[in-house]
Amino acid sequence: MRSIGISPKGEDAGGSWGLGKWVFPDASKLNAFLGVTRRAGERRFLLMGQTMLKLHELGGRKYPPVGFFAAGSEAEDRDWLPMPVESAGPGPGDAGSAEGVGAAFVHAAMRDFGLRPGGEPGTSVVIPHPKDELTDPVNLARAAIRQYFHPVITGDLVVEIASPGEPLRRIDAETIVDEALRTGDGAGDDPEQRAEALIRAIELARWGQRQEDGFVEADGRRKQPVIAPDQVENLRTGLGEGRRLAFRVKSRVRGKPNSFKLFLEGDSSLAGGHDYYVRGHLHIPQMDYLTRHHARALIVVDNTSDLGHLLRDAEGPAHEKWRADAPRLKERGWPNAAERVREVQNAAARILEALAEKPADVRRDALSDLFPADTGGRRGPGPGRPGPTPVPPEKKPALRIDQVPGGFRLKPGGNGDPTGRNFAVRMAYDVARGTTNTAFSRFDAGLRAGCPDFSLRNGQLQVQPEDCEAEVTSENEFQLRVRGSDFSLGVTGFDERDLVVKVLPVESEIAEIREPEAGAP
Questions:
Q1: What is the distance between the alpha carbons of residues 491 and 403, in angstroms, rounded to a whole number?
Q2: What one-character-per-residue DSSP string does 18-50 give?
Q3: Left if phi > 0, otherwise alpha if psi is -120 to 50, otherwise beta: which for 508?
Q4: Cα 55 to Cα 32: distance, rounded to the nearest angstrom
C-alpha cells in the first residue's frame, strides 16, 4: 500500500522495480483499489484501500495525492499512520464491541464484493469502476494465456475468471489449450500472439517439461562453436524430419558456469521464425531474433541462477525486453553483461544457422578451361600487355570518419562543401582474416541466419544527426543527406570489436528521384 518504487523482493523474484503494484490503481477509472488479506497462521482478515489522485486543495486546505481507506482516528492526518480495518476472527463478530464493529464491517465488505471468507491464506484485490477493457472476460483470458502460459503449464499458476451470465473460465495445465481456442485471436494480433501460434508454443513447452535426459549440449559464447561438429549432421536430419530438439546452452557469469534451456522445432508453414523467452514465471514478449528461419523456439532461463539475475537487471519496469545496454547492468557490476544478454538473444538463431545446409562454394574459375579469360586475378604485364596504370595522387575524402566511444562520427572531410550531397553509409564488424568485403559478407550471413551482429532497426544503435538527415535502409546501412557545411552524424551502441565503415557518394540524379516536388503529396 505504501512502498511505491520500493521492492523488498530478493534476487530470485520476478520483479524488482517496485512498480508492478501500480497495475492495481491503473486498472480503475478512479485510480483506486481495495485489498483484503488473511495471513498465514492468523484467523483475522485485514481490509485496506487507497486511491492515487493529484495533489489537490479542498476548502483552503492542501491534501496529498494518496488517499487511504483505512481505520480512522480523531487525530490530525499528519499525526497518524493509516492502518487496516481488522476483524478479530473468521466470523462477523459482536457488533456491540469495538472489535465487533471492525469485524462486521470487514465481513460486510467481503460479502458485498463477492469475496469468500474461508479457505487458504491469501490476498484478494478489488478494483472499483474498472476500465472497460478489463470487464471483458475474453480479454482477461487472452492476456492471462499470452503472458503466463509457461507457469500455467508447469502447474504453478491457475487462473479463474467468473463473469455474470457466463460459465466459469478456469485456465490451468489441462485446459489452457481449450481456453486459447475459445478466446481466439484479438484485433491486430501479431503472428506470434495468435491463438494457433500460442497453442504450438504451449505444446512445445509441454514437451520440454517432460524432457529429463536427452539434452544436447550447446555453447552460447560467441567465440565457441555453438554445437560440436560431430553432432551437426544428426541434429540437422532430426530437425528436417520434424523432430523437436532440446538444448542445454552453456554460458558463464562472473566466471561461474551457467546454462539455460532451449527447445526447438521446425515449421515450414511459418512465414518467419517465432521465438518465446521466459525467465522464471515471466514471459518477455518484445524479443524477436528468429525472423529468417522457419522454426519455433522456446528459451527458458532459471530465475534463481546468476544468468537469471543478470537478465532481470537487463529488463525495464514493464519486463518487456532484455536490453544489452540496460543501465542497471553497469550499476550492479555485471562483467561482460552485454555479451551475456546477446548470447541468450541469439542462441536459437545461431543453432539454426549451424544446422542449415551448407551453401555451395562459389568457384569463379569453374569454366576457365572452356572459356579462358581474365577472371580478375593478379597477373604481371607479359608480352603485349600494358603495364600498371599510374595511381593518381590521393584526394581528400568528402567525409571524415572519427572514432568515438562505442562508435563513430561523420564530419566534412575537406574536399569541398558536402551540403546537398547524398551518401550511402554501410557498417560491419571487422574480421581477423579477409578483406572489407569479407566483413560485409559475414554480416550478411548473420542477417540471413536471423542473428545480425547489430541492427539499426531495433533501437540497439543510436543515430544522432546534426544538420543532416539519415534514412535507415537496412540493418547495417543508411542514406545520409547533408543539409549544412558543418554537419555531423554520430552512430553509437557498438561493442568492443573493430568496425568497418564504407561511405559511398550517391549520384544526385538518383537522389533527386526520392525528393518529392514542391506541393506534391
A1: 10
A2: S-GGGHHHHTBTTSEEEEEEE-TT----EEEEE
A3: alpha
A4: 15
Tell me the DSSP string of 358-416.
PPPPP-TTTTTTTS----S------TT---PPPPPPPPPPSEEEEEETTEEEEEE-SSS
Strands 256-266 and 245-253 turn out to be antiparallel
Q: Angle between the 337-355 and 229-240 helix axes, to the nearest 10 degrees? A: 60
Q: Tell me the Cα Rg of the chain.
A: 31
Give the pairing type, strands 407-412 and 422-429.
unpaired
CA distance linking residue 176 with residue 391, whole number of Å: 72
Q: Where are the domains of the chain?
A: 20-131, 136-204, 211-355, 399-513
**Contact yes or no for 150/278 (Cβ under 8 A):** yes
Residues ≥6 apart with Cβ < 8 Å to 238:
245
Predicted confidence (pLDDT) per residue in 166-221, tens digit? 899 999 999 999 999 999 888 777 788 889 999 999 999 999 999 988 899 999 98
Could you give the C-alpha distances from 40 to 118, 119, 188, in angstroms and in order?
Answer: 13, 11, 44
Beta bridge partners of 51: 32, 67
Give me 70's grid cell.
Answer: 483505512
Strand order across the 462-466 sheet: 399-404, 407-412, 488-492, 462-466
Inter-axis angle of helices 137-153 and 176-183, nearest 10: 150
Residue with cell 555531423: 488
Task: State the amino acid at position 209 in one-letter form.
Answer: Q
Answer for the pair 140, 127: CB distance below 8 angstroms, yes or no: no
pLDDT score of 9: 61
Strands (E), 99-168: 122-126, 159-161
Report if pTM > 0.85.
no
- Integer CA distances (angstroms), 408 to 126, 202, 399, 444, in order: 53, 44, 12, 21
Query: Would you mind telling me the total number of residues written for the chain in this entry?
Result: 521
Per-residue model confidence as pLDDT tens digits over 474-518: 999 999 999 998 899 999 998 878 899 999 888 643 333 334 444
